[in-house]
Every structure is written in C-alpha cells, then in structure tokens.
Amino acid sequence: MSLLYISQQLIRYLGSFILIIGIVGDGINIIVFSSIRNYRTNPCTFYFLVAAIFNFLYIAICHSSRIVMNGFGYDLTRISISWCKIRWFIVYTLGLCTLTFSCLATIDQYFATSQSAYLRRLSNIKWAHRITIIVIIIWCLHNILLLLFYSIPSGTMACTITNSIFAAYIPPFYLIFVCTLPVIIMALFGYLAYRNIQLTRALSEQQADRQLVKMTLIQVVLVAVCIGPSGINNAYGLITSGVSKGTNRLSIEDFTTSMVVLISFLYFSGSCYMFLISSSRFREAVKGRILFWLRSNQVVAVQQPINEAETTNNITTSTIDATTTKTTIRTTETRIVITSTTKTTTSTTSTNSHTTTMNVSKLNKWKQNAITVAGGNGQGQKLNQLNRPDGIFFDKNKNILIADSLNHRIVAWKYNAKKGQIIAGGNGQGNRMDQLDWPVDLIVDQQTHSIIIADFGNKRVIQWLNQKPHLLIDDIKCNGLAMDKHGFLYVSDAEKNEVRRWKMGEYNNEGIIVAGGNGTRNQLNQLSNPTYIFVDEDQSVYVSDYHNHRVMKWRKDAEEGTIVAGGNGEGANLNQLCLPQGVIVDLLGQIYVADQSNHRVMRWREGKEEGEIVVGGNDGGSESNQLNDPTGLSFDDERNLYVADWRNHRIQKYEIIL
Asked: What residues contact 373, with CB distance under 8 A and at least 6 apart?
C-alpha cells in the first residue's frame, strides 16, 4: 500500500468529514454572530462574524476543490489556466483575511478591556467596519500578483508560479504572514487582554469580557495546532530547497505536505466547536437559536378578557374602566392585538424606594429621545462628569443620587443642575471608611435619611449618615440593594449567588437567604451572579439573574423562584434578555429591566411569554435615542424614566407621553 494511496483515502474520507463539520460549524457562527444584536454591535464578535464568513467560503471552495483534486484525482488547475489563477487567488485571499480578522478580534479585546480610556475608545464598531473593508482591499490588491504569475507552462500539466522572483517571495511570505505573525499577535494581545480583566473589579463586565478573551485565546490554539505544522513544513522546504532528493524522500515529503494541508483545514472548520467548549454565552446563544427555529412555526390563538384587575396586592385602586375583550394571535416574532379600550389605575403606595404616588397604565409610553440630566460630558472625574454610572436613586427633593462607580464616589445632581455634588467617597479608590472601591448601587433609608451603599470592590455594605460612614455588612460581594416597607434590607451577593435579608439595625448576623444560595446554575432555586434587586409590597424579591439572562421572582418564604422575564437563553428576541441589570416593578406588577447587552429597557408583564421594548433597542451608541450598556433604572413622581447609560457616562431621562 503506497503513501499516495493512503493520502488519497485520507483526503477523500477524512477531508469530507472536515468539509461537513466546517460547513455546519461556520454556518452556526454566521447565524449566531449575525442574528444577535449585542454580537453584531461588539467589534470583537463582529470580526468573528466576518472571519466565519471567510472560513465558510474557504471550506466550501478551497477545501472541496482539494478533496476533488487529491482525493479523487480530478485536478482542473492542470487543464484550465483561468481556474489555476482564480483558485490560488481565492486560497490566499480568504486565508489571509480570516487570519487577519482573528488577530483583529484579539487586539480589539485588548483595547476593550484596557483601563485606559483612550484605548477603550479604539474598540469601536464603526472602526471595525472600516478596518474590515480596508483589510479585504489590501489582501485583494496584494494577491493580484497571483493572478498574474500563476499559470500552466506550455508542455506541462502543472499549475505553478512562472515568475522566478515571485516564486522566491511566496514561501517566506507564507511562513511569516500565515504561520508566524498570527500566532505571535494573537498570543500577545490575548495575554494582555486576560491580564486586563484580572485587574478589573466589576464582576459583571469581567465575566462577559473573560468569555470573549477565552474565545480569542482558543483561536491561538487553533492557529498553533492547525497552521503551525504547515509553517514547519514550509520552513523545511525552504531549508532543503537546494538539496538533491531521491524518489522515496520526495514521496514522503508529498505525503507530509498533503497531511499538513489537511490539518490546516481544521482551523477553518473548528472555531465554532472551540467556542462551544470555551464560552457558556456562546452555548446559550446557539441553544437560543435552535429553540427559536423549533418554535418558529408554532402559532397559538388566545382569547382572554381584560376586565380583570391585574394589580399587585395592597394597592388601593380608585378607578378601573375595562370591559372589552382582546384577541391575541401570538408567534415567536409577531403579535397582533385587537382591542378598543384601555384601563388606567391611579394608585398610592409607599413600598420600595423606587415607587411613589403616580398614574400607572399598561400602555404607558415614553419619548424615545432622551434628555441627559447628569454627566454626558465625557468620561472623567470632574463634577460635571461621570465614569461608568451604575445604580441611581431619586429622593423626595428630585435629586438624583448616582453610584459613580469608576470615580469611586456617590454624587447627587439637583434638578436641572449642570454639575453634581460628592456626598460619599470621592477620596480616591481604597478601603478606608471614607473611601469607596467601585460602588455599584445605593438606596436611601427614609427613616434615618442615610445612604446605604453597595461597596462592591471592598466587599461591604456601608451606611453614610450625616457625612459619617458606618460599616453595616462585611465580606459580601454586594451587587444590588433594596429595602421593603418594614425596613428590612436586602442585598444580592454575586459571589455566593444569593440574596439575603437583614432586619434594620441587626447586622451582626448572617441574615436570612431569601433567593438563591443553591449553587450557580440555572435551576429555579439557583442564581448566577445576581445583580440588581427589587422588593414589592408583598416582600416578593425580583432579581436580575445576570448570567442566566432572566429576571426571577421569589415570593416570601419560597424555596424557588419563578421566571418573570427572559429565561429563553441569551439573545435579542422579545422573549430574551442578554445580561440584565437594573430592575423595577410598577404598581401593576409590570417589570422593567435594563437589558444591558441589547442596549434597551424592556417591560414584561408577569406570565407573558414576551416583553416589549420601552426605550433604546437601536444598537449601542451615544445618540439621544440610543443606550450603551444600560444599568440602573428609576422613576420619578411624574413617571418619567431614568436610565444609567453606563458606557456613555450619563443619566438619561425619558419623558412620559402616555
């Protein structure tokens, strides 16, 4: 059995298997990265998308033709000069482009995770679009030389380079730009990006970036394992180019070259499967796409009256006028509602810190162009600036209290003020009692008129009373705070994946677990990095279950929660959330959630399969109708909606119009 026969059989059967898994895997990458908004608008994953498209084309064109040539013996490049030129142009252009985009994804992740504001600004989707076009143009222009110098010399049946200078140029070019530089660039910037996230205190951002870093680092492994042997073989060819070789040696070298080429195709077909192994977010996205496809043809007709009083307990209702019937025809993407009247409830309550006396309607709408009421003057530490604002709170005097997280301070902006006032922290990042380290949320205790702060980086909850800080709870990775009408304090713990409750003034104990505390998976009795929380009149706790992409409701003394928003995997469909943050609930039990990575605020009614976009949802950006990673939410007395626009370093006010 000759080496040529073994080579043909391996290319025919193993090559066909690689072709199939490559088409499927690259197809999955294209669908996931193009259909989910937060992937499309992220520069790193945009590069992944473009690389997936080029990988798909490479596998479909170059690898399939290699199987036909070496596996079945039908080599069109030996008889068609046009195909000889075009095939090599396609091979080099697609291969160089996909390797370049993988390098750019790694470099972008280094920029995105940097502590330097200047470098972070370089991670920009508009720049990614432009750079993509430039890269394609550069490699197409470079590879025009292949169209000029590849041909079939007269008297032969071999597609080869006919220019001696170009023939001497190609092997070292291939060794440097295909086999060496991509590994060095991706390994270097992948390591730097990983080091960046190790220095980042914000768990929510760190975990999201960590998974992207893993996805970029896995590309380093693919390049090293799959393209590396080709580089070694290429270097061997350069070194032994002047050596006289016998028939057996040439046969071994031809066999080795065929196997090296076969291994190289694994790089262009294997990224999807590596992403599935390395990233839970990507797995959830793939699962969401599959579930969406399975449910896409399901149509359910529902007829229900709307004359029921859909309000929460202990709410005093003055007028309800609703006697009509609505018919809803629901699919996974469309909803048609036929109705003739609406109902409005006027209610008064003093429940959670985010709710006051106001008019509530199931059809409340807000202007889509927001007004900036705090920050908006760039990222910085001046009094007219913010740096990654998180939790926000409205006091009775219409002051906005803001957890200015990366400035390590709490600031208050008075109504129509041009700058804020520091009311806690502001003495640099640190663990002294007069310092904060990444405060992420705050509430006001109306009884003592004190501010309670989730001091995330210092793993503590502190109280500022009359400008004096007091330690309430220590050794807790607090992500969110809430207080019920009885004065009980609720704190979410991102490290233990639970929410605990303490009685006011009795903080010298471990508190009582009211949600989670059963591990970090996605069962109904579990949470995964809980962030913001809200407590209603019945002491039910609503939790933004960040890494499970859902909002959970835990009734008082319940052993497990119920999903009231999201829970259908990570995604941008109306039945999905992607890394939810701020959550508040109105008097009708409608849940408002900051859908962070989808750059929108959603409203969900408990028991409904889908939510609706309230504001945002126009991709991540800095225009007045856009948000970029929204976090904290709050309402004022007039029902205007306020959103902490995290990456735009501003607080946006959306005025109510209905």
From this structure: 400, 413, 642, 651, 652, 653
The tokens describing 288, both together, are 């969401």
| Of residues 626, 628, 496, 634, the one with CA closest to residue 203 | 496
Closest CA to 593 of 555, 529, 546, 525: 546
Q: Does domain 365-657 have CATH number 3.40.50.980?
A: no
Q: Give pLDDT tens digits for 338-397.
A: 233 333 343 333 334 444 434 566 678 999 999 999 999 999 999 999 999 999 998 878
Cβ-based burial of 357 (10 A; exposed 0-12, middle 13-18, buried ≥19): exposed
Spatial distance between the Cα atoms of 569 and 287, rounded to a whole number of angstroms: 7
Q: Place 246 in a pLDDT band, splitting at 50, 70 and 90.
A: confident
- DSSP annotation string for 586-609: -TT-EEEEEEGGGTEEEEEETT-S
Q: Where are the alpha helices (DSSP H) in 150-202?
A: 164-174, 181-198
Q: Specify the domain boundaries for CATH 1.20.1070.10 within the chain.
A: 3-241+251-286
Assigned architecture for domain 3-241+251-286? Up-down Bundle (1.20)
Distance CA 185, CA 172 (A): 18
pTM of the model: 0.58
439-445 sheet: strands from edge to edge = 439-445, 450-455, 460-465, 468-474
